[in-house]
């Protein structure tokens, strides 16, 4: 579920406002919070049987015509996708020439917030059996079914993602680091969300990608 107090989401919504009147698709919309909170014209896609989503997809092929979308939103989805290449290729197929993706991912520094969050330790206690069985896999945020925590920290490197974007036919137009490590938690965000911190303490990266 979207963390409504998280400054990253406010930042993303401000970027998306520039595309008013355009065809906007939220690829991996969750409960379609961006549509509900920010823009009623967004089309929400989700793989799960979710009544809030506008279209349920199979996770591979998008039921969208070639070159028909002005803007895709892809916010904290890529780290959960098993086939990253297909995910990026499908959006590129659907984008109009010079179309845009606003894509956000966590940085490896996200884990600073994760381990400072009391909820993490409550989760460990509730899932004690699984934690003892495989603690590195237990703490994996993106692909718990694929690998361990250490591999995820390597996969979340910005350079790896940026090389992949270029390989798949995107130009990185802009790059922003958002959300300080204290404001990731929904309750902390109410207090710390507006604090400006050095980049080393920011846990999300948002990219503006243009189709080449």
Helix and strand pattern = HEHEEEHEHHHHHHEHE
Query: Within the largest sheet, what's the order of strands?
Result: 3-2-1-4-5-7-6
DSSP summary: helix tally? 10
Q: Give the overall form.
A: globular
Count of DSSP strands: 7
Could you describe the largest sheet, including whether it forms a barrel?
7 strands, mixed
Question: Could you tell me the mean pLDDT?
Answer: 89
User: Stretches where pLDDT falls below 50 for ≥5 residues?
Assistant: none
Pick out its properties.
212 residues, alpha/beta, 7-stranded mixed β-sheet, globular
What does this molecule look like?
The chain is of the alpha/beta class and 212 residues long. The protein contains ten helices and seven strands. The protein has helices at residues 7-16, 33-37, 84-94, 110-116, 118-126, 128-133, 135-138, 149-155, 158-167, 186-192, and strands at residues 24-27, 43-46, 55-56, 69-75, 95-106, 170-180, 202-211.
Secondary-structure blueprint:
Layout: H1 7-16, E1 24-27, H2 33-37, E2 43-46, E3 55-56, E4 69-75, H3 84-94, E5 95-106, H4 110-116, H5 118-126, H6 128-133, H7 135-138, H8 149-155, H9 158-167, E6 170-180, H10 186-192, E7 202-211
Parallel strand pairs: 1-2, 1-4, 2-3, 4-5
Antiparallel strand pairs: 5-7, 6-7
In short:
The chain has 212 residues and is α/β, with parallel strands linked by helices.
């Amino acid at each position: 579920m979207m963390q409504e107090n998280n400054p990253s989401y406010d930042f993303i919504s401000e970027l998306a406002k520039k595309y008013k009147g355009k065809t906007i698709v939220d690829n991996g919309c969750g409960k379609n919070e961006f549509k509900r909170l920010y823009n009623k014209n967004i089309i929400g896609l989700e793989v799960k049987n979710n009544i809030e989503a506008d279209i349920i997809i199979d996770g591979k092929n998008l039921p969208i015509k070639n070159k028909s979308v002005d803007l895709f939103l892809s916010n904290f989805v890529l780290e959960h996708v098993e086939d990253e290449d297909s995910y990026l290729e499908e959006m590129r197929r659907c984008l109009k020439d010079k179309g845009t993706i606003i894509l956000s991912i966590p940085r490896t520094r996200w884990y600073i917030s994760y381990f400072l969050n009391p909820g993490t330790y409550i989760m460990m206690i509730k899932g004690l059996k699984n934690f003892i069985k495989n603690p590195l896999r237990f703490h994996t945020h993106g692909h718990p079914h694929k690998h361990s925590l250490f591999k995820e920290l390597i996969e979340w490197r910005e350079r790896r993602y940026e090389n992949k974007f270029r390989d798949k036919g995107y130009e990185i137009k802009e790059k922003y680091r958002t959300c300080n490590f204290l404001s990731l938690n929904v309750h902390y965000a109410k207090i710390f969300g507006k604090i400006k911190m050095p980049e080393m303490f920011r846990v999300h990266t948002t990219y503006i990608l243009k189709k080449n």
